[in-house]
Structure formats: C-alpha cells, structure tokens
Design brief:
With 314 residues, the protein is mostly helical. It contains 13 helices and no strands. α2 runs antiparallel to α3, α4 packs antiparallel against α6 and α7 packs parallel to α9.
Length: 314
C-alpha cells in the first residue's frame, strides 16, 4: 500500500539535497559560465534524485532490468551529460542538437528494450511499432524544442515549475493507473528539479542585482539542463505509464503537451507584462489541462481499481 508519509519524506529529502548541492556549486564562482551553470545544476538534480529514491527505498536494478530502471540509469543521465557538453564554448549549436536528436530517437527503444513490444512480433506488428515510434519522436522532439526555444526567448523559473507540475500530475496519473513504482520514482524527480531550479534562479537574480551588469528588467539565464531533465523525465514517466501501465495514450499526450501552453504568454497582450505576472499566467494555463486529466484519471480509478484496493485491505 502507498505510504504518504514516506513520499513526503522522500520529496523533502530530494528537494533539500538538490538545493544544497546547487547552493554550494553555484556559490563558488563569482561569475559562472553557462557550462558551469549546466554542470552544477545537472549534478544537483542527480544528487537530489538519488537521495529521494534512497529515502523512498525504491530499488533500481543495476544493470537496468525494466523501463523505469533504464529511464533513471540511462536516459536521464544521458540528458544531463548532453546538456553539460552542449554548454561548452567549443561545442556548436548544430552538434548540440545532433546529440539531443540522437537521444530523442533512441529513448523509446531504450525504454522498451527487452519487453514484448520489441521481442514479440505478434504482440506488436511492424506497422504498430513504426506508428508508435513516430508519434513518440514527434512528441518528445516538439516538447524539447519548443520549451528550449521559449527558455531562450523569455527565460523564467516558471518553465521548470510548469514541467515539474506536469511531472507530478503524470506521477499521480500513473499511480492511479496501477503502476505505483513509476509514480513513486517521479516524485523525487520533481522535487530535485524544482529545488535546483529555485536556487539557481534566486542566486542568478541576486548576482544580477549586485553586479548591475544587466538591466533590472532582463531575466537571468535559465540553465538548459533543467529544461532537458524536465522534458525527458515527463516523457519517460508517461511512456512507461502507457506501455507498462494503464495510462491511455490520449491522456498521456495531453499531460506531455500541457507545458507548451506557456507559449500563450508570448502573444502581444501578455508578453510585455512583468515577469511574475507572465510566470503566474503560465502556471495557471498549464494547470488547466492537468486538472482535467487528473479528474478523469481519478474517475477511472474509482470505477476500476478502488474496489480492488478496498478488498485487498480487508
């Protein structure tokens, strides 16, 4: 049975660990480079996630044995490494995107490795595989590219916050669909991401105000690693929830695309508002489809799985 207290402890530990590591690493250099920001935030997220999983007592098999294991041990570390490399000065934008596209193309196959979907031609025909992989590539690529572009165009802490909100909704949806382990792993992921993002944003804003090098209206730079981890983590949780759980495809797509509603704030009446107003509007817009999908998932849970849980508890 789920233990709410354990989830709270794991979430708090992941957020605290991620924030603490971010404070230490971002405090060291007086004027951190983009490469340092990405590396420091990547390390902070990784440490926070590891601590949260440890507190949650969620076993991750090594070598990875399932889709969730491969998400935590291969896909997310690969995203952290790619963004750290992409931020290095000698690395060009084209090469960086070649690395990202490579991970986008490989992620579905990595997560399905060893499953009946790729080992049994009768379970999954070639046409089904081609369509499914195509949809996954388009979904992950569009989310990553558009959120990355928004982070460059108008950065704000609301971007990782919206991704964290979507991951938390994905976790609840996956758990209500019967895949408890998938939802449990997402909770410390959200906490580590948000703890690191908050510290990075506060410290960057503080340095900007003290140095006076940038206009007060210019937002601090958003480390791209936070967007990468948020997008790949959101996609991965929903992917394993759909293929290894009971999350309907339409519901998974709706949650995955919800953060893209942040782009609505780029229309003329909104984009010139103060940053805190823009951030608030972004989070409210993203929350609308998430609340709707959660309500739908709760309805299905009460109808299909809740009676079984009650019977097992007796």
């Amino acid at each position: 049975m789920p233990d709410p207290l354990l989830y709270v402890q794991a979430t708090a530990a992941a957020a605290a660990a991620g924030a603490a590591i971010a404070v230490v690493l971002l405090w060291l250099p007086r004027s951190p480079t983009a490469a340092w920001l990405n590396a420091a935030c990547g390390i902070a997220v990784a440490v926070g996630l590891t601590v949260g999983l440890r507190v949650e007592d969620l076993h991750v098999a090594l070598p990875p044995a399932g889709g969730l294991d491969r998400l935590l041990l291969i896909v997310i570390p690969a995203a952290l490494l790619i963004e750290s490399v992409a931020a290095l000065p000698p690395v060009g934008n084209r090469f960086a995107w070649a690395l990202r596209i490579g991970l986008i193309l490989l992620t579905p196959r990595i997560l399905l490795h060893g499953s009946v979907y790729v080992s049994d031609s009768e379970t999954w025909t070639a046409w089904q595989a081609a369509i499914s992989f195509g949809v996954c590539w388009a979904l992950l690529g569009s989310c990553w590219g558009l959120m990355f572009a928004l982070g460059r165009r108008r950065p704000g802490v609301s971007i990782p916050l919206s991704l964290g909100l979507a991951i938390q909704s994905a976790a609840a949806t996956v758990m209500m669909a019967g895949y408890l382990r998938g939802g449990e792993a997402a909770m410390p992921m959200v906490a580590a991401l948000l703890g690191t993002a908050t510290v990075a944003w506060v410290m960057a804003s503080g340095r900007r105000g003290v140095s006076g090098e940038r206009p007060s209206t210019a937002p601090p730079v958003l480390p791209t690693v936070l967007i990468a981890v948020g997008v790949i983590g959101l996609f991965g949780v929903l992917f394993i929830g759909h293929f290894f759980g009971r999350v309907p495809g339409g519901r998974a797509v709706a949650i995955c695309l919800a953060p893209l509603l942040c782009w609505v704030t780029e229309i003329a009446p909104l984009k010139h508002q103060r940053p805190w107003i823009v951030g608030t509007i972004r989070l409210c817009l993203v929350a609308v489809p998430l609340v709707i999908t959660l309500a739908s998932a709760k309805r299905d849970f009460d109808r299909d799985l809740a009676p079984l849980v009650v019977m097992q508890g007796r």
